[in-house]
Amino acid sequence: MGTVIGVPHRRIKATLTVVLVVLSFVGQLLPVRAAGTLAISPSRTQEVSSSGVNLVVTVRGLVGGQSYSNYWAVTDPSGKNYTITTTSMASPSGNYTISKVYPRDFGVGAGITYVGQYSVAILQIAPSFGLVATGQFGVGITDKLFYQRTQVVSIKAAGYKANDMVAVSITKGGIAAPGFPVHVTADGSGNIFASWITLINTLTGNYTVSLTGTSTSPKNPPDSQWFILIPASLDLSPAVLTISASSVAISTTVTQPDGTSLTRGDVTGQFYLTGTSVGTSIRLIYNQTQGKWTGTYTVQSSDPSGLWMLQVTALDPYGNNGQGSTSLSVTPPPAPPSQPPPPQNQFTSLWFLVVIAVIGVGALIGFRFLRQKRMLPPHLQVDLKAVDVEASRFMGQDFFRSVQEQLVKNKDSAQGEKDGS
Predict the structure, then answer these.
(1) Alpha-carbon separation of residue 238 from 126, 298, 326 (angstroms)
(2) Reported pTM
(3) CB neighbour list of residue 226: distance below 8 Å, 6 or more residues apart
(4) 198 burial level (CB within 10 Å; 0-12, 13-18, 19+)
(5) Whole-angstrom Cα distance, residue 22 to residue 14?
(6) β-bridge pairing 224-230 and 235-244
(7) Alpha-carbon radius of gyration of the chain
(8) DSSP string of 224-281?
(9) Which has more pLDDT, 204 or 49?
(10) How far apart are CA 187 and CA 278, in angstroms?
(11) By the 8 A CB rule, do 259 and 291 touch?
């Protein structure tokens, strides 16, 4: 059966301090002292916790078969102290374990109705006196102190009058969060339940949540606490598949903390081999039909073979990001054989010879013409008739005639192939 001690907070602390000092001193004079460890679970919870907080103490160094009495004290943030006394028999090995739940096992009035730290002290009071174990657990209005964007902020509070209208406010730097404050009606037990659904673009930073009742007297300490909203950590599940010897398909899902898919942002992939990047970065595009971000990479013959690691990075327009990786064994395709130089066009070669021949004829005619002239007239004049005679003589030579015949022959052969096709 629990006992509620309703005395001022400062007097409680002073009294407990004196008692603990005295008990510790007396315990040192006794031959057998208890040595215990206290496990508290959870270490932090919300107001209106239906399951409470588990307190498990294990005591060692005792006399087997001896009966021991312990005094448990839990002090809440308002200064109220709730106590119980337990008696246990030490096992032959000289130890025992006791488990209690706060507030369920601590009598009328015990509760989780204040924000802050709850202190736990366990004393052995018989057959000897001494401090067995101490610990703390925290109680808040929210279920967590840190949230990622898109996560729901759960708000719970207790200790209000039944059906009281309670104002719930969330502020950041004195500015109200979107949709707040809201007014919530307490249930028949004086409990308040509310929530805030954060968005992918909600401002990050430090927020304060506070509750104020209409007819309920202000709490001491008040129902007010901070929590922090941080950028969302995107969850990626990349996959890579070889399509052919020269092509690799890449895909990944990108999931936000609330479980929805990211459809807008910058998603890229990069291959690595033993820490060195392979190829260039691959830009992935969201495929609405597949619900995935997809892309391809063309494997070059110059790429190294081995176990490639693919690292995919996602970044949305609001600064939320994430990474994922997978691996694939890659064997690049063989290098293509070297190509011989393109064949030279015969017509081009023959025409080139003709041009050279014509230039040579012109040079020869000019040289012979100058030799025939002992003296040049004041103005250089060309005897066109003499030039024509010399050109006719050269055209009749065997070399030029063979060139002409070869051109005609090649032309007839090319025309025959064209007609045959």
Answers:
(1) 63, 18, 6
(2) 0.69
(3) 145, 206, 207, 208, 209
(4) buried
(5) 12
(6) unpaired
(7) 47
(8) EEEEEEE--B-EEEEEEEEEETTEEEEEEEEE-TTSPBP-SSEEEEEEEETTEEEEEE
(9) 204
(10) 62
(11) no
